[in-house]
Write a structure and sequence with these properties.
Distance between the termini: 39 Å
Shape: globular
Strand order of the largest sheet: 1-2
Largest sheet: 2 strands, antiparallel
Oligomer: single chain
Number of helices: 3
């Protein structure tokens, strides 16, 4: 699956894998945008995973594929 210039792993279904583990859902362009936005606003990986309703390991793997990093000290104050 390609999103912009990034090549992501093949889409997964929400069905069970043969070994009994849950497979990850494919990432849409909106998911990638939300991921980048959450990180840009200083959210941690755990907070971002919760917001996206995804597993922490799934978020970390996608961040690695996209070359994204966490900036937990970069918090924006909204008044």
């Amino acid at each position: 699956m390609e999103v912009g210039t990034f090549r992501l792993r093949e889409p997964f279904s929400d069905q069970e894998a043969p070994h009994g583990r849950k497979l990850w859902r494919a990432w849409s362009e909106a998911d990638i945008s939300d991921l980048k936005n959450e990180l840009d606003h200083g959210r941690t990986i755990a907070e971002t995973a919760s917001f996206l309703c995804r597993d922490v390991y799934e978020v970390r793997a996608t961040m690695k594929e996209l070359g994204l990093t966490e900036h937990p000290g970069k918090r924006r104050v909204v008044l």
